[in-house]
Amino acid sequence: MPSVRDWSASGLAALTGTPDGPPDISRAAVLGQARGVASELSGHFGVTVDAEELLAGRAALLGLRRQGRISAGGATRLLAGRDGWFALTLARADDVDAVPALLESDVPIDYAWSAITEWAGRRQVGDVSERARLLGLPVGVLGETAAAAPVVRRHGNRNPFRDFAGLLVVDLSSMWAGPLCGQLLARAGATVVKVESPSRPDGTRRGERRFFDWMNAGKLCYATDFVQPDDLRQLLAVADVVIESSRPDALVNRGLGPTDVPGRDGRVWLRVTGHGTDGERAHWVGFGDDAAVSGGLVGHDPAGTGPVFCGDAIADPLTGMHAALAVAESLQRGGGEIIEIALASVAAEYAALPLASGDNVDPVGKPAAPVLSSRAAELGADNAQVQAIIRERVTAQC
Predict the structure, then answer these.
(1) Quick check: 247 pLDDT over 80?
(2) DSSP string covering 200-221, please?
(3) How far out from the chain centre does Cα 333 lie?
(4) 342 and 148 in contact (C-beta within 8 Å)?
(5) pTM, whole model, 2 decimals?
(6) Average pLDDT, stretch 95-122?
(7) Which of 322, 368, 290 is nearest to 33 (CA)?
(8) Which member of 100, 322, 365, 379 has the greatest number of CB atoms within 10 A?
(9) In what order do the strands lie in the sheet with 139-141?
(10) 27: left (phi > 0), else alpha (psi -120 to 50), else beta?
(11) C-alpha span between 299 and 34 (Å, rounded)
(12) Rounded to the nearest 10 degrees, what angle do helices 343-351 and 315-332 cross at?
């Protein structure tokens, strides 16, 4: 049975529901299944992985709370169309700039959300999402995505796995899901190199520093030019694991895809996307909150007026955990694989779990902040050390 008490105590109930109503306990089973994944990770990595911390830790660090149809982080909203619900994210400056094109009307920034709400209410959600996606906006139609396991394809030779401490992980990802996967591998003992472009670093560097530190402390920070990426190509060639969260063709267009750069035997290449790599979905942008809605993972307003957000960008930490597990299992098989995992598909797996019912009678705990023992390095601080690692590995391969 789903544990309502655990859901309430974890702080996740405090992040789900309407702001002026009781917390929603209907998704209590999510924590139970996430704990199972965390237990598997703990077994593989030899360190304790705490599901409650991973799911609610960002909210605790940032002081977030439940806001009903406004995401805990504030950038995403659940909106009604004529025939259903969808979530739209305006997290980036480019997203806000695209609003007039979306509405085909000039709208003052202060009235953007009210204008979008009125505009969408007169349209079918399919039409809304199609137009938003043409403009590159992150949008998720409620329940449009089915649950799906990570896609695993053989690519290259296998290599017997020995120890996480001997692994070199190249983390090209940003934001939350990919960096969390890299952070878990670092906790297991792997050397993880966080790669960023000086002109476009991880967006979380500019936000709450404690969240960036939580995801990236313990990684070597390497700054490089993705336009002339000769040194990056060398790094990818000597890596044991590569993590990326770009659109499927972004790295390929620069000659940096998994089939472009010959790899070591046993290399595992992980691709984290919002909606997958096939067909039109490959071009859909997804963030944690809108991807969760796409997968159907939402809470419920007790008044019966519609869905509310579940947790804080919950598709991100869930996907980060499942990605780390998929990498660990691939390494145990000897690697030589490409793994593709999508936020919306992971969310859909959790959306299919049975709902808890009844009123919550237990005290609702606040999200607990993780203990931060160190800070992440500054951009490019470890370039010399990473170059030395590349030279050492190239020499060893000769």
Answers:
(1) no
(2) B--GGGGS-HHHHHHHHTTSEE
(3) 25
(4) yes
(5) 0.97
(6) 95
(7) 322
(8) 322
(9) 76-80, 85-89, 139-141
(10) alpha
(11) 17
(12) 100
For residue 33, give both structure tokens: 């299944």
- Name the residue type at position 88: L
Phi/psi of residue 78, nearest 5 degrees: -90, 125
Contacting residues for 341 by C-beta, under 8 A, at least 6 apart: 150, 151, 270, 271, 272, 273, 319, 322, 323, 326
Minimal CA–CA distance to 30: which of 1, 2, 71? 2
Using CA atoms, how far apart are residues 80 and 43, in angstroms rounded to an integer?
43
Collapsing DSSP states into helix, strand and coil, what is residue 87? strand
Give the position of tokens 């992440």: 376
As a whole number of angstroms, the distance between CA 241 and CA 218 comes to 16
CA dist., res. 295 & res. 281, Å (int)? 13
In angstroms, the first-to-last Cα distance of the chain is: 56
Task: For residue 369, name the pLDDT band (cuts at 50, 70, 90).
Answer: very high
Q: What are phi and psi of 70, to 5 degrees?
A: -105, 130
Token output for 218: 């313990």
Residue holding tokens 């406004």?
70
Place of tokens 């959306």: 351
Beta strand 151-154 with 337-342 is: antiparallel
CB contact burial 209-226 (16+ within 10 A = b; e otherwise)? ebbbbbbbebbbbbbbeb
Which of 297, 350, 299 lies closest to 18, judged by CA?
A: 299
In whole angstroms, give the CA distance from residue 379 to residue 383. 9
- 250 burial type by CB count under 10 A (0-12 exposed, 13-18 middle, 19+ buried): middle
pLDDT higher than threshold 90 for residue 332: yes
Say which DSSP state 339 is in: E
Calculate ∠ Cα 63-67-73, nearest 5°.
50
Neighbours of 14 (CB within 10 A): 23
Q: Write the DSSP assignment of 248-288 as a string of letters.
A: TTTTGGGT-STTTS---TT-EEEEEESS-SSGGGGG----H
pLDDT of residue 319: 98
